Amino acid sequence: MRSFDATTFVAVAASLLGYTSASTLTPPVLPLIVRNPYLSTWLANAREEPWSKWPMFYTGSSMGMSVLASVPESSTVYPLLGRAHDSLDDDGHHYNLSYPTYRGAQYDASTTNLTYSIPCPNDSKGSEAELTLSFLSPITPTSTLRQSIPASYLSVYVKGSFNLDVYIDLNGQWVSGDRGSDIVWSFSETDFDDAKQLKTWKVKRRTEQLFTEVGDQAEWGTLHFTGPADVHHEAGTSAILRQRFSKSGTLQNRVDNEFRGIMQEEPVFAFSKSFNLSAKASSSSSEQIEDSVLFTIAHIQDPVTQFASARGLTYMRPLWESYFYSHEALITYHYLDFKHATALAANYSEQSAYDAYQSGSDNYQDIVALSARQVMGATSFSGTPENPILFLKEISSNGNSQTVDVIFPAFPFFLYTNPRWLAYLLEPLLEHMLSGQYPNQYTMHDLGTHFPNLTGHADGRDEYMPVEECGDMLIMGLALVNSLSYGDGKEMAGSSWSSLGEGKSAAVLEAANDGSIFALPAALETREGVFGLDDAWLSATSDHAAKKWLSRSYPLWKQWTSYLEEFSLEPQNQLSTDDFAGWLALQTNLALKGIIGIKAMSQLAEIMGEKKDAKYYRNVSETYIKKWEEYGMSRDGGRAKLAYDWYGSWTTLYSLYADALLCFHPEGSNGGSDSTAQHSLGADQQPLASNNSPSNDSANFIPDHIYTTQSRWYATAMQKYGLPLDSRHLYTKSDWEFQAAAVASEDTRTEILDRVAKWLNETVTDRPFTDLYVTERKGGFPGPNFFARPVVGSHFAFLALERACGGKGAEAFRTSSQSHSIEVLLRPPQNTQKRIFIFLQIFTAHSPKEKMLAYTAAFVGLLASTVYADGAAILKSLDEISASTNKLNDAVVSFKGDFPGALPIAADSIALLEDIKSGTKTAKASDPLTFDETIKVAGATFSLQSTVNMTLANIEEAKPKFDKLLLSPVILGNLKLDKSATDDFSMAVTEKVPENLQATAGQLTAGFDAAFDAAFDEAIATYKSF
What we know:
The chain is α+β, with helices and mostly antiparallel strands. 41% of the residues lie in helices and 16% in strands. It has three domains: 6-301, Beta-galactosidase, Chain A, domain 5 (Distorted Sandwich), CATH 2.70.98; 393-455 and 465-500 and 536-668 and 684-813, Glycosyltransferase; 823-1024, no CATH class. It contains 29 helices and 30 strands. The radius of gyration is 29 Å and the shape is globular.
């Protein structure tokens, strides 16, 4: 086994700070260590200092985790996380207790960074030290193996000129919800390469209780807390250890083996690390030295659940166990894999951020980032590589297992992120019902009343939602099959993450022949320089795989559809997924879901070659949808009613989303589609369904005016914090808000998104992202209190729709074309056409080659869009940008291919992106520009072209160096974000050009738009080859 390269870790840890983009929203709670339902620790007070409260389990109960920093030169100790300082006496004799400056939190889909400043000791004039706690729970769609590991990373990153000591401890609250439980612990050191490399604490209940929860925490499983060999360790009473560290800055490498209760003389398990920064610095006291240390936190359970499978009640082993012979082997691999896990997580974080920004806004970027770990935090991987399974806990609303109407709102996340995981979620439901253990003709509500006991409902008395669950399963089934559509054979469709991997391995093909359609490689290989990647989701055999998957359960699909045929058009008194609202007959939205389910079955039958079934269910669905409109829409045609017979009511008709996602609505909506407004997705934005998927039976299954009507109604029903669920209450469900918004007009969509973002910034809820909240007053819980639920996967509804239907799923809901251009710089009045044309001739004469012109044009938007209210401010901004561009170019030129050299580039890139975004806001707020101001801006921009050209060229030339460091995905993400941000800048500035200057802009700037896009597209294509 390879040894751990500490130097590499320092650089990788630092790179985490580089790719975690600035966050704009301030939610009340942030994810820290979130991997599954039992390893789920959150920052409880994300709007306050992290030391003001203890971290918490998702239920709100405290989790013992504390971090302290000490400056030995001043004998001062600083709390960073948790309330460890409650154990300290600030007597001024042995140490001083003080508080750092908290710089705030940044987060993306996988990472949360908490950053602090610590003053230079003894009131000297030296610079402050910067310390960051970086929590990484990597989401790795290209590596199911990594995703299945129940462990997260904690990096401590320091930068300063004076020495710092850091202390971290955990307690027994991580292994039991019963605070009176007795726990046992041990300490071990892992040897490999003839050296001691890792230190690990192991903690568990003295008497484990298999498949038992207390306060939603597991009462079985072992906590593994791991650090490198050069840290000090100690187990003992919390106050004693914290005071010892505060006095001495270290621990004693001792283990207290008096096993006891969790809170009985509270035993903690601690590491300390000394950073000798002053010894590494030069004689200059201002030189900033960087260093890092890595810890991992794992909660290992074996088995993970019990499941009523086809062979009977089965203890289910964790998926990772098929690849590692022991817990120690898993922990060691996970620790040493930090470099690759970071790169893969960065790829997903950057791609999802780019896609969210394209599809929504900065706010949408943050909402998507906050939702991703929460979805995966409700799941646990099990099974074998031949038959993987993904178990899911409902969380907070109740403890149901594999709840169909919870998987359903979560599934846009899985379609976008990795459709393979959706198949793993559906597998246990299909296996159980195919085995005949569920007696009803409709699909089951869940696999067990309380996770982790998936024992089924042999009596058929699960929660009664028959139309809901049948519609959900049929819709998800077709969506999954569509994700396997191979298209014309030239390009693979589906998730962009499927591009990693070279088709199916021999092992997977063999497993598929044995009936395991979505198998993983049984023996992990190194591919593209990375160990343990999945095979590509799609291949030339994907259509065959879809049919094989369907054929196994085709009788079930027909059975459920027959139920919908009888009961969906006029659903009897029953619950929908919104069961907290109570029973109700003739629910308009529920009926629509059932009818769409019948329509989905017609497509599934066509895929299977069952022409008779396809025709029959198509006719039924088309007949029903006409009647549904008659029953469900208000008399004036202005809205959908909550129930057919509830006149004066209204509802959020979120089932429309399924109609669009399944490609039943191909024609334009909300004013029609502009043929010039085709949304370019690029090679990375592959569709979920190919253009060769089964043909649609009619132009629009649901009439276009239904979409338009609902979108207009939502605008009138909007409240302070969003769109209420229906006319009964002021509460809403964020999952359904996002599904409804995805198929509304752009104005309505933006309005909903902005109001949800406002709620996230202001809500008084104090738990992980709730999906059920009041849209007025303080935006609190309405009772019941929902939180940490995987249904926030519907926050990805925009992104899943963008990829659907050959990449055209969202086009029908765009009200106008959004041209992206840089023509803002030159829009002359008629009497100055000659003057501007001469300027253009000079401009292009200095860039005779098309590529160089493209480079220049690409950065015109970047550099010229920092427009303020007067010319002097513009020129000052351009001077500053010129200096920044030169600085970035110098950093790229001097880059030698090492991690420390990459850090300034990352920092400069992030700063540039933030400047662009800030410039957009400034431009939107500025007064209209005069013609003279426009000319001055253009001239100043022109003077920067040579520096811009060199910078772009040097960035492209540096790609091989970034490849070796696994940082190319980060650069790729920055390029995409810069392109999107520049588009926004250009449009913002365009709006400020006087109307009489715009007449001839198109003629004078012909070709610049194409050159601009080509420049970024070329750079993006270059970095995509990673």
